[in-house]
Specification:
- The chain has one domain.
- 86% of the residues lie in helices and 0% in strands.
- The chain has four helices and no strands.
- Helix 2 packs parallel to helix 4.
Length: 93
Amino acid sequence: MDFIISQYFGNIYFFYLFVIWCLVWKGLALWKSARREEKYWFLFLLILNTLGLLEMLYIFVITPWIDSRKHKKLTHEHHEHHEHHEHHEHRSE
């Protein structure tokens, strides 16, 4: 086994560092997706092994994008509700 690892990775310590790197990013992404109750992202991240790239993309790009869309939607709905409420106040006068 060590021969196969050293043949492909050259150095056993690099291999261990590589495994730790992948586990850290996968763990962080899985933790975040579970806390956000995003079941499909959790399964996707659990099954695919992308050397930490998809996990970093999820943490630093996708979740902020989802959050900004949710914020814009909530702001828009609040603004529409406020306008609708003002419209009813003016009609009653």
